[in-house]
Amino acid sequence: MADLDPARIPHHVAIIMDGNGRWAKQRGLPRIEGHRRGVETVRRTIETARELGIRYLTLYAFSVENWRRPEEEVGGLMNLLEYFLKRETSTLIKNKVRLLTIGRTADLPAGVRRRLEQTIEATAGFTEHTLVLALNYGSRTEVLDAVQAYSAAVAAGEVDPAKLTWEDFARHLYTRDLPDPDLIIRTSGETRVSNFLLLQAAYAEFVFLSLYWPDFSKDAFHQAIADYQGRQRRFGRTGDQLGQASPQPPPLPAGSAS
Ligand code: FPP
């Protein structure tokens, strides 16, 4: 297992879980079998994140574009999500992990919505670890929803658009209560961002892994963190100004659970 510096663990890791379909195809199995194995990897990854002291873990579980998949696969993914919430809520409570979502969750099937509401309510009091599921999420729809919310605030005379700052606008994003991700991991060998946290990733480090999501092990997670710790995050400054070889996440913003 990679040697990690406990003082430089990223606050927020976000993951594009890719490659379930290819994992299954390689084995002559139906795609849903890859997703099923993917759920096991989700459980393991939440556990590892907690062990490592990662405060926020965001998982890209279903994008706004994923509705374009065959109906059977979309239905299968929704069933798995419901199954995961039913089975894992007690573990999240035991481990004091708060659940949040980002995305247009109102469009998800009623059964999934109900489970989400129950788990979110049951874990709302926890502050140490947060699991964020990106569901029916897309950065562009997030921007549209934020612009609508901001415009409504302007129309109500609550805010002055002439004085708009990034912080004001960011308060209307789904991620208003979250720090920006420090590290974004994508599995499966693809090196795309796929409409995921485009604004929040402004200063994130990216790690692209060639293995498929069902094969994302504890060891691979540690390795990705080690890779992150070997980088210098400059946030627009020069390396000489910083004089440090490894990244320090910026302080958590006011309003995020500390
Ligand atoms: C990408 O693999 C994966 C998804 C679109 C869904 C991810 C869902 C899970 C891991 C299971 C349910 C989630 C939770 C949180 C319980 P792909 O199907 O695009 O793989 P491919 O690119 O190889 O076809």
UniProtKB/TrEMBL annotation:
Residues that bind Mg(2+): D18, E205
InterPro entries membership: UPP_synth-like, UPP_synth-like_CS, UPP_synth-like_sf
Stretch list, region Disordered: 237-258
Record key words, sorted: Magnesium, Metal-binding, Transferase
Composition skew (Pro residues), residue ranges: 247-258
Top EC class for this record: transferase
Cofactor(s) recorded in Swiss-Prot or TrEMBL: Mg(2+)
UniProt-recorded Gene Ontology molecular function terms: transferase activity
Subunit relationships: Homodimer.
Function: Catalyzes the condensation of isopentenyl diphosphate (IPP) with allylic pyrophosphates generating different type of terpenoids.
Family: Belongs to the UPP synthase family.
Protein name as it appears in the record: Isoprenyl transferase
